[in-house]
Protein: Ribosomal protein L32
Amino acid sequence: MAVPKKRTSMSKKRIR
Structure:
């Protein structure tokens, strides 16, 4: 994943 740790929280919910 090429996403910063700050957006990992929200990105994870959208990716999964």
User: Anything to note?
Assistant: DSSP finds one helix and no strands in the chain. The radius of gyration is 7 Å.
